[in-house]
Amino acid sequence: MKEQLIKLEQEVLQELEKASRKELNELRVKVFGKNGLITNLSKGMRDVPSENRKEIGQLINQTRSLLEEAFAKKEQEIENAELEKSLESEKIDITEPSKDIKIGALHPTSDIIDKLTDICVDMGFSVVEGPEIETDYYNFEAMNIPKNHPSRDMQDTFFITDEILLRSQTSAVQAREMEVRKPPFKIVCPGKTYRNDSDATHSPVFHQLEGLVVDENISMADLKAMLSTLMKRLYGEDTYIRFRPSFFPFTEPSIEVDLSCPTCHGKGCNICKGTGMLELLGAGVVNPKVLEMSGIDSKKYRGFAFGFGLDRAGMLLNGISNIRSLFKNDIRFLQQMKGEKK
After folding, report:
1. What is the number of structural domains in the chain?
2. Are residues 128 and 50 in the same domain?
3. Does residue 255 or residue 265 have the better pLDDT?
4. What is the DSSP string of 244-264?
5. What whole-number distance in Å separates Cα of residue 120 and Cα of residue 230?
6. Is residue 9 exposed (0-12), middle (13-18) or buried (19+ Cβ within 10 Å)?
7. How much is the pTM?
8. Can you tell me whether residue 178 is helix, strand or coil?
9. Structural domain containing residue 10
């Protein structure tokens, strides 16, 4: 029996070396099948003398384990060879773009936020954000707009309580930053704001970007130069900028900034109502009271601030006439933003 096992092992291992997948399966049945060689040897244990059965049984089990391991190794070798052959003959060109994949585009508001913040960062500004649920103090009082001040009537604010509100302007972020930053600094604050106002050019939910510069020897000339550069980079070098006197409680002096209509380039159209000019933003030299309320020495430092509606700025850049289009989530409108046919 011992000699039979040694001979069986040698013959099977030799056949395994040159076996194909089909031959491997046939050989497995021949060795381990119901009437296989190993099976028959196990059945022959009844003819082995009782004193030798333990030893012969161990030898049969050892041979079985060795051959099972050899079969598994051979099967893995065959699978690896088949996979390698398949990879060589069935290559996929992953550099070829897939068909029927539609490329999207940024929403006009997201696009204008990215464009403006990129320009401001290039000019040395840091981008900061703040809470949309704000206190009356940061939204109004820290901006030199105390309770019962007439300028509060300019904003129909959403109050949650007497002291908590949905911010009506991102100026609140400036107030917070002035408390923790030491001059000199330059910041811009983009984000959502809320006012009870709704028509073709106003929405209860809209976006603002406000900027603030605090340093020594800041003047209106610095503000005008910075805004001229900002507007020309956004709307084109041929953009004409006009500055008009205005009033804001948090700046003194204050100005309104108009620019030539990007759609008609100052000739007059329905977007600019035939005037050739569009009002875009407000700005001014920071009121000393605002600096003092935030703990900044107004005798040493001055500043300028500016702010405008991002939705309106994006509408002008893309020739959009109704602000509601920005919030309808209409796929036909969004397709136009990348020039895709309906």
Report:
1. 2
2. no
3. 255
4. EEEEETTEEEEEEEEEE-TTT
5. 8
6. middle
7. 0.65
8. helix
9. 2-89
Q: What is the CATH number of the domain that holds 321?
A: 3.30.930.10
- Segment 138-154, tens digit of pLDDT: 999 999 888 887 767 77
Average pLDDT along the chain = 85
Beta-strand relationship, 251-260 and 241-248: antiparallel
Q: Which of 63, 81, 78 is nearest to 12 (CA)?
A: 63
- One domain, residues 83 and 144: no
- Verify that 155 and 299 share a domain, yes or no: yes
The closest alpha carbon to 35, from 43, 46, 45, belongs to: 43
**Of residues 94, 85, 41, the one with CA closest to residue 67:** 41
* Sign for the pseudo-dihedral over CA of 107, 112, 113, 119: positive
Sign of the Cα torsion 266, 271, 274, 275 reads negative
Position 133 in a domain: yes
Q: How far is CA 217 from CA 16, 184, 213, 252, 285, in A?
A: 91, 11, 11, 15, 11
Which of 30, 56, 89 is the C-terminal boundary of a domain?
Answer: 89
Residue 180's Cβ-count burial label (10 Å; 0-12, 13-18, 19+) is exposed
